Amino acid sequence: MASIEFVTLDAADPTAAKHFYTTAFGLGSQVRLRASEAPTTGFRGFTLSLVVSQPADVNALIDAAVDAGAATLKPAAKSLWGYGGVVQAPDGTIWQVASSSKKDTGPATRQIDEIVLLLGVADMAESKRFYVDRGLAVAKSFGSKYVEFATGTGPVKLALYKRRGLAKVVGVSPDGTGSHRIMIGGDVGAFTDPDGFAWEAAALTPTS
């Protein structure tokens, strides 16, 4: 089964970005940084989500992110599906922090249950077919709006969302140009998908 071992984010200052992700979210090898000032404007077409077990954990992570320099795009709040909020890291990456639970069951922690990479796509049918052809199995599918893949034991899960819909979810304009400023490291080879998201072979990438 295909898996994602890490994502690499482009940042003008990788050292500062690494400090942010360690301080705010306690992330290690799942998120890597590399120096790049590739031109980009507006929405980069993807988000990363941290899934946790209860609202108190959402608040703890969002508060830590804001204290470390993140900007609030959507304050944490209850919704039909649970509880969550959205922040934008200093490097520009948009992060959703969410729980399917609306009630706390214990003291707040910063434990992350899942990391989900959501790619905003222009044509859901085309992108879904592209990834299936490369060995990814569909775990959930909701028509032309959302597709989630079964990504094995890797620490990062993958889902596709209509670009405009994803932008609306996180509270930004869908408009954007230039580089996505992300590289996906997995075991399905090196390629670029129909929306310009680039993958590299995880086994060929240094761990440092």
Q: Distance between termini?
A: 25 Å
Adjacency order of strands in the biggest sheet: 5-6-7-4-8-11-10-9
Would you count the extended β strands for me? Answer: 15
The dominant shape is globular
Return the string of H and E elements: EHEEEHEEEEHEEEHEEEE
- Class from secondary-structure proportions: alpha/beta
Enumerate the spans where pLDDT stays under 50 for 5 or more consecutive residues: 204-208
DSSP helix count? Answer: 4
Largest sheet: 8 strands, mixed
Helix content: 10-25%
Over all CA atoms, what is the radius of gyration?
A: 16 Å
| Average predicted local confidence, pLDDT | 94
Strand content: 35-45%
Structure description:
This protein has helices at 14-25, 55-67, 124-133, 163-170, and strands spanning 4-11, 31-35, 40-42, 46-51, 71-78, 83-88, 94-99, 114-121, 137-142, 146-150, 156-162, 176-178, 182-186, 191-192, 198-201. 21% of the residues lie in helices and 39% in strands. The model is unreliable at 204-208 (pLDDT under 50). The protein is an alpha/beta fold. It is globular. The chain is built from 4 helices and 15 strands. The strands form 3 sheets. The protein has an 8-stranded mixed beta sheet with strand order 5-6-7-4-8-11-10-9. Strands 2-1-13-15-14 form a 5-stranded mixed beta sheet.
